[in-house]
Amino acid sequence: MKKFTLQSKIIFIVLALLSVLILSLSVIFFRMLSGTLTDLKGKQALAVAQSVSKMPALIEAFNQKQPENIIQPLVEDIRKETGATFIVVGNKDSVRYSHPLPERLGKKMVGGDNDRALIHGDSYVSHATGSLGPSVRGKVPIRNNQNEIIGVVSVGFLEDSIHDIVIPYRTKVLTLVTIILLIGIIGSFFIGKGIKKAIFGLEPKEIAMQFKEKRAIIESVREGIIAIDQHGLITEINAKAHSILAINHHYSNRGRYILDVIPDTKMVDVLETRESQLDDEISLNHHDLIVNRLPIFEEETIVGVVASFRRKDEIDQLAKELSQVQEYAGILRSQTHEYRNKLNTIAGLIQLHHHEEALTLIQEESSGYEDLIQFLLKAVPDPVLAGLIIGKYNRSQELKVSFSIHPDSSITTLLSDIQREKLITIIGNILDNAFEEVLSYPQHNRHVQLFMTDLGNDFIFEIEDSGGGIQHIVSIFEKGYSTKSEKDRGIGLHLAQKSVEQLKGYITVEESELGGALFTVSIPKQH
User: Fold this and answer.
1) What burial class does residue 275 get, using C-beta atoms within 10 Å of its C-beta: 0-12 exposed, 13-18 middle, 19+ buried?
2) In whole angstroms, what is the distance from residue 477 CA to residue 499 CA?
3) Which end of the chain is more exposed for a tag (fewer CB within 10 A), N or C?
4) CA nearest neighbour of 154 among 77, 230, 98
5) How large is the C-alpha radius of gyration of the chain?
6) Of 309-323, 409-423, 427-441, 455-469, where does mean pLDDT reach its minimum?
């Protein structure tokens, strides 16, 4: 069985509501019209009856032996003029002196509603069934010159005649109802079509499912998300946003003005500028955040703004992990390249039958590398720091740079995870900078030396080179500063300084005994 679409449901509901409404109004209208006409006819009957009861000729006729001979023609003329169904005049005993049907003269009036007029002298409108059928009647007593009640006048309109008046109105109303229903059908069709377009052709169940999916997605992401409408009122805020911004999530913030919740937000600015704000760094609630703010458009009109944000330290952590992976990859790459060169050299010596030189080269390489490993095993038990130094040693061999570790070096204090991560950035970048500084010199004058110690309360690292020294000490740690002309330079030393500051340490630069620069890094053991 084919399911009803949203549009057909809307049409059906609108038509049903229209039909019920119109039918209800029609019934009410007919009842009101019928009641109003009945009241009017009753008042008309009463007015005619009052006029007839005061006619001198009629009152005088009651003194005659045959009053009907005078009253009947007199009253019939009045009945025809007024359009009344009947005008009946009766004596005190309710015996008729006039009637539309002459054969009923002299008979008693039917209906049983004369007592109020004949006994109490009241003038009133009554509803009763007489000899001609159900009718609305005006009853008025007839008084003589001595104010005595001598009879009654009953003027009436049959209820069927009132209904005959209503029927033409009913036809008009039914025609109008039909036209309204046709307009309703057409209107509901276009309304349903418009609603269908506005909700992208989705059915109610699909809308509900997408809403649930949207809520689940928003709550599952690790970023804080806030959305506002064009008036700056919050339309969406997830649990992560409550957590990062330290907002009470037990209180519903939806519908509140954004500046009342976050006074320093720039989301309102985006409403005015209509421009995106990407990777904006802000400090909020003692946290450094990275924020993206994007306007929401409906055609050309801005209808809101959505902001996503995340703590900067989480992003930095990811960057550090990536940096470590890149560092390890660089170490392996340089080591592989260096060994390939040496193996090629050894293979060449063997092919040239210089076996003694090949053996000497193997012994020297094995001895030097083995000595470095044995030294690091004793002086630097931390495997990550030792691995970094070995990697830089391999890199120096590839670059034909003499890299040495001062024999008095020793780092035996256990490093924390954050100290280990930061030192990879600090030592790695300073050594890379030192290698680059000496590359422009002859191979015999390319020297870089590392000294490290943990005596006292600080970790001390000294890296010196035989390069040309530092010309602009004040600027070397600025992001993007470099004496090289290549792009994407001037990052390493900036990152090194930032990492030192995060460890509450300091870094200095001075002239080295080797002729180049001497970088001294001091980091507290207790962080």
Assistant:
1) exposed
2) 12
3) N
4) 98
5) 54
6) 309-323
pTM: 0.40
Say if residues 428 and 392 touch (Cβ distance below 8 Å). yes
For residue 37, how many other CB atoms are within 10 A of its CB? Answer: 19
Angle among Cα 142, 143, 147 to the nearest 5 degrees reads 160
- Alpha-carbon distances of 191 from 21, 176, 202, rounded to whole Å: 18, 22, 15
For residue 229, the cross-strand partners are 304
**pLDDT tens digits for range 313-356:** 665 556 555 665 565 565 566 556 666 777 777 777 788 777 77
Q: Is the dihedral of CA 397, 401, 402, 403 positive or negative?
A: negative
Q: Which residues, including other chains, have CB under 8 Å from residue 316's CB and lie 6 or more apart?
A: none
Q: Output the six-digit token pair for 158.
A: 């049959």
Give the Cβ contact number of residue 350 at 10 Å. 13
Closest CA to 431 of 468, 407, 458, 405: 405
Pairing mode, if any, of strands 458-465 and 506-511? unpaired
Q: Are 502 and 523 in contact (CB under 8 A)?
A: no
The β-bridge partners of 156 are 86, 137
pLDDT in tens, 476-517: 777 655 555 454 455 778 888 888 998 999 999 998 888 889
Residue whose pair of structure tokens reads 């003269």 in the numeric block? 105
Show the tokens assigned to 426. Answer: 């600090």
Q: For residue 190, what are the contacts with CB-CB under 8 A and spacing of at least 6?
A: none
Task: Return the structure tokens found at 72.
Answer: 């009947």
